TrEMBL record, chain A:
Family membership noted in the UniProt record: Belongs to the binding-protein-dependent transport system permease family. CysTW subfamily.
Membrane topology annotation: Multi-pass membrane protein
Lineage of producing organism: Bacteria, Pseudomonadati, Pseudomonadota, Alphaproteobacteria, Acetobacterales
Name this polypeptide is given: ABC transporter permease subunit
Keywords, in A-Z order: Cell membrane, Membrane, Transmembrane, Transmembrane helix, Transport
TrEMBL record, chain B:
GO cellular component terms listed in the entry, alphabetical order: plasma membrane
Domain ABC transmembrane type-1 residue range list: 78-284
Keyword S-adenosyl-L-methionine applies: no
Pfam families: BPD_transp_1
PANTHER family: INNER MEMBRANE ABC TRANSPORTER PERMEASE PROTEIN YDCU-RELATED-RELATED, PUTRESCINE TRANSPORT SYSTEM PERMEASE PROTEIN POTH
Main location (coarse class): membrane
Subcellular location: Cell membrane
Protein name, as recorded: ABC transporter permease subunit
InterPro entries membership: MetI-like (IPR000515), MetI-like_sf (IPR035906)
Superkingdom per UniProt: Bacteria
Family: Belongs to the binding-protein-dependent transport system permease family. CysTW subfamily.
Transmembrane segments: 12-35, 82-101, 113-136, 164-186, 207-232, 263-284
Keyword line: Cell membrane, Membrane, Transmembrane, Transmembrane helix, Transport
Length: 265, 293
């Protein structure tokens, strides 16, 4: 009994701290009142208001597109990098490569955003590409830090990977590329899928880097939310938060179901 | 020989991508930090130009860095950033350590679920979670409402736009980064060590202080750095929850860039921010590399 209490108290405090703010938002997204703090009655009007908010819907569409494209690019880059780091042993420049792959994980966003913007400006001056800034430059920026996350996930999966299947295939005469596509890739697929989802979510959530590298006419969802929050709290923001929490909860359940399949028996 | 060429080809794509979009941009930031602001686009002067005789002239403008030394505003922003990050990381440790320990000692079938509950908020919109805290802390907010209703206070407390709000916001947003590395070390601890301590007569508190805590130090350091490093450059939280005087480096950089359009000064701030973080990032990377090996 005492042991159970010792476990429950810190978890109770911690999870209350993490979830009370979210629960309050969910509750007040169904509030009838315009006031964001007193509950007057149940209503779904803020969801309707959300649906009718064209700027927000457009930004959401743009953000979803950018997230899908950048997560896919990040997955290609991150999978290669993760394989290189986990499987290629001590190749020349490994430390520098590992450093370059891991640095975006801890780099403050203002630095990443500013440096990428200056890079895009310099490239435009030198080569005329990318012409101007918008969704494309945001996608490139997101792919860069997304790749770092995918690489970590894939590398971790490969680190505790049973190589005997690959060895068996090679012994049976399969060529390396065939081993890779028929054995290694399918077995790492859950980690790759989890990495893609992580890159997708991070892209969807990014305000700072997108604000630096985006251009006029390409406002992502976080940029629109940010300017709305600066003007003041409105309940439709809570409705949006509720939808996102629901979406993420469903996504995470699916992702964990893929990544950690139930052991049989 | 063929293997080596194959490897080089495989590595070429991520290598060149990271070089182009991560390493080269830093070099550009470093050069523009020494440029002078100008009207026009891009709003800075080139560092070198060709004289009429045909030789290059390189002009380094040190005014930005001199400004940081002379104007106390920037020095204070730097110190304040370090303080906010350190306080918040400590708060994360105080909340996160008991959580991580409890998860590590929970029955095995619960652990995945508990860990997932720690990570879940991290996957939902960062901005909207900050927004929730505005609703909690503002003058007519939920917290003041609850305290007034209970009769604890007679007048609403000023909570939003204070340092308390800032610490709470950073702690709230970065807590998962503290719990995960702590859990990773704590779950690997050999329970036999604790049993041995108990058999030798140590009380639980003493066993914790002399066995568990010292052995979990790698997790403590990793978690502290994972919170501290991004928190030093944080922009959104001080902007939305902090007061007008909560000028942290990230916020000042943002202001110089977006409001004052002083790209060289913003770049110089990025260089200074990076210098502040070189030591913690190096420690973090060295530890990560050692663990991977």
């Amino acid at each position: 009994m005492r042991r159970a209490a010792r476990l429950a108290v810190p978890l109770g405090i911690g999870f209350a701290f993490l979830y009370l703010p979210i629960l309050l938002m969910v509750l007040f997204s169904f509030n009838d009142s315009r006031l964001v703090t007193t509950f007057t009655g149940f209503s779904t009007r803020w969801y309707v208001a959300l649906w009718e908010n064209e700027a927000l819907m457009q930004a959401a569409g743009l953000s979803l597109r950018i997230a899908a494209v950048s997560a896919t690019m990040a997955t290609v880059l991150g999978v290669i990098a993760g394989f290189a780091l986990a499987r290629m042993g001590r190749f020349r420049g490994r430390t520098a490569f590992a450093g370059a792959m891991a640095a975006p994980l801890v780099m403050p966003e203002v630095i990443t955003g500013l440096s990428l913007l200056l890079m895009f400006v310099a490239m435009e001056q030198a080569f005329g590409f990318p012409a101007g800034r918008g969704a494309d430059t945001v996608a490139i920026a997101h792919a860069t830090f997304g790749a770092a996350y995918v690489a970590v996930v894939v590398q971790a999966r490969l680190a505790d990977f049973d190589t005997s299947l690959e060895e068996a295939a090679m012994d049976l005469g399969a060529r390396p590329w065939k081993v890779f596509f028929l054995i290694t890739l399918p077995l790492t697929a859950p980690a790759i899928a989890a990495g893609w989802l992580l890159a997708f979510t991070l892209s969807l959530d990014d305000l700072v880097i997108a604000s630096f590298v985006s251009g006029p006419g390409a406002s992502t969802l976080p940029m629109v939310i940010f300017s709305a929050v600066r003007l003041g709290l409105t309940p439709d923001l809570y409705a949006l938060a509720t939808l996102l929490v629901g979406l993420v909860a469903v996504g995470l359940v699916i992702a964990s179901w893929i990544a950690w399949p139930r052991r049989r028996g | 020989m063929k293997g080596r060429l194959g490897r080089a080809l495989v590595l070429a794509l991520p290598w060149s991508w990271m070089a182009l979009f991560f390493v080269v941009p830093f070099v550009i930031v470093l050069t523009i930090a020494f440029a002078e602001p100008s009207e026009g686009l891009p709003p800075y002067t080139p560092l070198w130009r060709w004289t009429e005789e045909g030789g290059p002239i390189i002009q380094l403008n040190l005014a930005n860095f001199r400004l940081f030394l002379e104007d106390p505003f920037y020095l204070e922003a730097g110190l304040r950033s370090l303080r906010v990050a350190a306080v918040s990381a400590t708060l994360c440790l105080l909340v996160g350590y008991p959580m991580a320990l409890a998860i590590a000692r929970a029955p095995e079938r619960w652990r995945t679920l508990l860990l997932m509950l720690v990570i879940l908020p991290f996957w939902t919109s960062f901005l909207l979670r900050i927004t929730a805290w505005i609703g909690i802390l503002q003058d007519q907010g939920w917290l003041n409402g609850a305290l007034l209703a209970l009769g604890v206070i007679q007048e609403p407390l000023q909570l939003l736009y204070t340092d308390i709000a800032l610490y709470l916001g950073v702690t709230y947003c970065y807590l998962p980064f503290m719990v995960l590395p702590l859990y990773a070390t704590l779950s690997k601890l050999d329970p036999a060590l604790l049993e041995a301590a108990e058999d030798l007569g140590a009380r639980p508190s003493r066993a914790f202080l002399q066995v568990t805590l010292p052995l979990s130090m790698p997790g403590v350091v990793a978690g502290f750095l994972l919170v501290f490093i991004p928190a030093v450059g944080e922009f959104v939280i001080p902007e939305l929850l902090g007061g007008p005087d909560a000028q942290l480096v990230g916020r000042v950089l943002w202001m110089e860039f977006f409001q004052n359009r002083d790209w060289p000064l913003a770049s110089a701030l990025a260089v200074v921010l990076l210098l502040l973080l070189v030591a913690p990032i190096a420690i973090f990377q060295a530890r990560a590399a050692r663990e991977a090996a």
